[in-house]
Design goal:
alpha+beta, Transcriptional Co-activator pc4, Chain A, about 30% helix, globular, cell division, SsgB, cell cycle, SsgA family sporulation/cell division regulator
C-alpha cells in the first residue's frame, strides 16, 4: 500500500508580458515513486496533461534557478518565499507559469513527512522486501 499527498494550487499561465490566465493545477506525490512529484493541468475542453519531475528539483527551485532541459524552476524575485517560475518545454514550445511559493512549500513539507528527502532508497528497499514477504506468504497458503 502506498500513501499519497495531493494539493491544488492556482498558477498563472504567462502567455506574454501582457496576458496571463489563472489555472488550477493538481500536485501529486506517491510514496511508491518517492523521487517524483507530478503536476496535472486539467483545463476545460482539453485532456489532462501531467508533468513528472524530481521532488528535489521543486525544492531547489524555491531558492535558486534549478533544472536543465524540459523543466526549469526558479524564484521570481529576491524575497524569501516569493513567487516561483516553472518553465515546461517540449521541443521549441515552452509554457511559463508563475505560482506562489508557500503552497509549494506546504506540499513539499507534507511529502517530506511521508518520505523524508534522502530516505527514498530506504523506502524503496523496504517496499520491495514487504512485497516479497507478502508474495511468499500468499504462495505458502
Amino acid at each position: 500500500m502506498t500513501d499519497t499527498v495531493q494539493a491544488e494550487v492556482i498558477m498563472s499561465f504567462l502567455v506574454s508580458e501582457e496576458l496571463a490566465f489563472r489555472i488550477p493545477v493538481q500536485l501529486d506525490f506517491d510514496s511508491a515513486d518517492p523521487y517524483a512529484v507530478r503536476l496535472t493541468f486539467d483545463l476545460p475542453g482539453d485532456m489532462p496533461v501531467t508533468w513528472a519531475f524530481s521532488r528535489e528539483l521543486m525544492l531547489d527551485g524555491l531558492s535558486r534557478p534549478s533544472g536543465e532541459g524540459d523543466v526549469r524552476i526558479e524564484p521570481a524575485g529576491g524575497g524569501h518565499l516569493s513567487d516561483v517560475f516553472i518553465s515546461l518545454q517540449v521541443g521549441s514550445e515552452r509554457a511559463l507559469f508563475r505560482v506562489s511559493a508557500p503552497p509549494l512549500v506546504a506540499f513539499l513539507d507534507r511529502t517530506d513527512r511521508l518520505v523524508p528527502l534522502g530516505a527514498e532508497e530506504v523506502c524503496d528497499t523496504l517496499e520491495a522486501v514487504l512485497d516479497r514477504i507478502l508474495t511468499e506468504a500468499s504462495k505458502a497458503s
